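Suppose you are handed only these lines of text.
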Amino acid sequence: MAKQVIKVPDLGGADQVDVIEITVAVGDTVAQEDSLIVVEGDKASMDVPAPVAGKILSISVKEGDKVSEGDVIGEIETDVAESPAEEPTEAPAQEEAAPASKPKAEVPAAATSAEPKEETIQVPDLGGADAVDVIEISVQPGDTVEEGDSLIVVEGDKASMDIPSPSAGTVVSIVVKEGDKVSTGDALGVLKVAAKGDAASPVGPEAAPQVEAPAKSTTQGESEPVEPPAAPQKDYQLERDLTVAAEVYAGPAVRKLARELGVTLNKVKPTGPRNRVSKDDLHNYIREQVKKAESGAVGVGGAIGIAKMPDIDFSQFGPVNVEPMSKIHKITAANMSRNWLNVPHVTQFDDADITELEDFRKSMKAEAEKRGVKLTPVPFLLKAVAAALRAEPSFNVSLHNDGEHIVRKDYVHVGMAVDTPKGLMVPVIRDVDKKGLYELAAEATELALKARDGKLKPNEMQGACFTISSLGAIGGNGFTPIVNSPEVGILGVSKLAVKPVWNGKDFEPRQMLPLALSYDHRAVNGGDAGRFMTYLVSVLADVRRLLL
Ligand code: CAO
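From them, the structure of the protein bound to oxidized coenzyme A can be written out as follows.
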């Protein structure tokens, strides 16, 4: 057994390519040349294969990272005992593994004429790969191309790559078609090279860049830097799209275009050979989507299109005054639509018997006032919700945006909806489970005041696991609150009412607090919610349970 560091192989001069897929997990056993990760640059995507057979000990990169040749991507335990002195990171297998990444330093057959000149376009050095498939023809005769524009896309066993135009000019002819097999040096077509004042760019295998193809050779020998993709902010949606898209057959140019247009490739109907998505497929997809959106059609059996609301001139019905919405109101409206449309809501109702809680609260009111705090039902609700989140940890979760993971939280921060003149604000009380009732009452009052004065800081409105929305002081006997996603649930509290409750012998007047629990049914099931609500109601019915 020997441990071997796995490094990124020669990328043909490309630098800082994106890791778009991790194809193995720690503990996986792989054969030599099995794909470990997939990287993608401006013009090509390629697998980074296992240099040897063995067991994956670690993977030190993640999707979205940028890597360059020689970067460590993980460790593998090989079956073969190696000499300790041997540094095995540049295993020979890598050479084969990156077939398209070995540029040859051949001298270009440079054209030096200043006149426009027709030149044969040849397949560049494919790094030893032979008879690769032509999977896409990106240009047609008459097209004007810039140096570096993709002419055709080829695909071998381990990588697909664009064959870029060696010079700026006009495509005279393309002599290959999709499905053909080509090798280094094969003629692809003829290019009329634009006149240049200086020596023209080389034409032929030597000139073409390899995997990443950044080397738009200039006379100074500069290479143009690989165009960095959009700044990789932490965007779960993008990560998920990349993961899904990585499972689709498409050339690098198509992938790049899809990324720019925000299209998830697996939604596009492929028409190319081997179910490959072409640029035309992508354009057709976008055209269809635009048509659907414009017609306002409601989709059947697939994505739901939402019919646009008609513009109505209300003044035709009577006098009106049209006012601008506050910024908070606009943000709230956008968030409500987003949450309402994205989160499959279920709302469960119950009444908590808070007769004893109310007796206790009222008996403590004077003492609380001496301490400068107002003891309303809200601090009790905060404390009870925190206890329920701890007692039912399956409810203290969020659905990860990738739709494949559940985030379990070991903290209990609770949001509290506050009605302000400018709109709804939701300050967050942190570590509610660790705070006493007076402390919670003081904090709730302070945050509500800050919210009404517009003085909440952004970090005072972030990080809640759950929200309480209390309309108890206003009225009503029930409402269905909207989950403040990515939180898992929200408790709508209505006005306390004295109701007759059967105690087994008689109807007894009890102070009943109507509760409505809305939750994200993707993240939790009805059973979790039922247990959460039952526990919550039992704690509110007997606050001594909070001490247990
Ligand atoms: N039933 C009956 N009375 C209640 C009650 C309930 N469920 N909850 C509170 N009350 C009483 C309080 O005890 C208090 O009475 P006293 O003054 O006699 O003690 C009175 O109503 C007013 O309470 P409050 O509003 O000062 O304080 P609170 O702790 O109940 O609420 C806060 C604080 C910030 C939650 C509240 O002021 C608020 O803004 N609520 C609106 C939230 C909202 O808009 N939700 C909807 C969101 S979705 O659109």
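What can we learn from it? Confidence is low (pLDDT under 50) at residues 81-113, 197-246, 298-303. The pocket of oxidized coenzyme A is lined by residues 376-378, 416-419, 424, 448, 469-473, 481, 493, 495-496, 513 (CB under 6 Å).
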